[in-house]
Amino acid sequence: MTLNDLKAGQEARVLDVTASGATGQRLLDMGFVEGTVVKIVRNAPLVDPIDLLVRGYHVSIRHAEAKDVEVELL
Fold first, then answer.
1. In this predicted model, what pLDDT tens digit does every residue of 44-70 receive, in sequence order?
2. Which residues have C-beta within 8 Å of that of residue 32, sequence separation ≥ 6?
3. 28 in a structural domain
4. What pLDDT does residue 48 have?
5. Contacts for 52-60 with beta carbons within 8 Å, 24 or more apart?
6. Domain housing 11
7. Which of 4, 33, 47, 74 has its CA 20 to 30 A from that of 14?
8. Total structural domains in the chain?
9. DSSP codes, 24-53
């Protein structure tokens, strides 16, 4: 399951970031590391972005980037 599959209000734990290169490094820099708990605040169904709560701060990422973050539901 990826972040892109979650609905607003759901929480999940990051398992892996599958993106490589600059995108992968950017996601890691924003706090998407293994074991981090993330909560979906808002999810635009057709248009970007997804608003997430990560380590106490809000992060917005594109749906394409969210597909590269594997998670498990809590």
1. 877 889 999 999 999 999 999 999 999
2. 14, 17, 38, 54, 69
3. yes
4. 85
5. 52/3, 54/30, 55/31, 59/30, 59/31
6. 3-55
7. 47
8. 1
9. HHHHHHTT--TT-EEEEEEE-SSSS-EEEE
pLDDT of residue 57: 93
Q: What is the CATH number of the domain that holds 35?
A: 2.30.30.90
Do 37 and 74 touch, CB atoms closer than 8 A?
Answer: yes
- Per-residue pLDDT reduced to its tens digit, 8-25: 999 999 999 999 999 999
Question: Is 18 among the domain residues?
Answer: yes
Instruction: Assess if residue 48 is contained within a domain.
Output: yes
For residue 64, the SS3 value is helix
Distance in angstroms (rounded) separating the CA atoms of residues 20 and 12: 22
